[in-house]
Specification:
This protein is an alpha+beta fold and about 170 residues long. The protein has a domain of about 100 residues: SH3 type barrels (Roll), CATH 2.30.30.830. It contains three helices and seven strands; from the N terminus they run αααβββββββ.
């Protein structure tokens, strides 16, 4: 037991002697940093004086008056009829629908449109297709032509022609 204690004391003494000496490289580095010539600090840039701006309204709108989107929109432009009941083919986007044929009867010409749910629908002029309020305006042997109503970004609506071609 005495040997273990004396061994511990010897190890602690050796460790402590290693920490105490040889700080010459640190002293050299500190002296080198202190000997360096200091650089001048750049002065703070001068702030430009404020130049007031006078807003002359003349024919411009008042920038402090909020304009409602509905006021900016074309009040007389096209609008979808939100009160009418949606037709079954308005549930699907136009690119998901396929024209598979036409039927001509004495009452008129009908297009056969296949929906993604594999149901074939018979449509005529003034029926609606797609999710952009598309109304059928013409049916030919090769395509169904329609006009879609899409938002114009200013609170109004704009008409856009679209078509659904006969699939082979």
């Amino acid at each position: 037991m005495i040997r273990a204690i004396s061994l511990c004391v010897l190890v602690v003494a050796a460790t402590m002697s290693a920490c105490g000496g040889g700080g010459s490289d640190l002293d050299r580095y500190i002296a080198e940093v202190k000997a360096r010539k200091s650089k001048d600090i750049e002065p703070i840039p001068q702030i430009k004086p404020y130049q007031p701006f006078e807003y002359v309204a003349a024919d411009r709108r008042d920038p402090f008056v909020f304009v409602e989107r509905s006021e900016r929109a074309n009040a007389n432009g096209p609008k979808p009829d939100m009160r009418r009941n949606k037709e079954p083919l308005e549930e699907f986007p136009l690119d998901a629908l396929r024209m598979v044929g036409i039927i001509t009867t004495p009452q008129g010409t009908y297009a056969l449109i296949k929906a993604p749910d594999a149901v074939v629908h018979r449509v005529s002029i003034h029926n609606h297709l797609g999710q952009n309020y598309g109304e059928i305006v013409a049916i030919s042997e090769s395509e169904v032509s329609l006009l879609e109503l899409v938002p114009d970004g200013f609170g109004g609506w704009t008409q856009r022609p679209a078509s659904l071609a006969l699939s082979q």
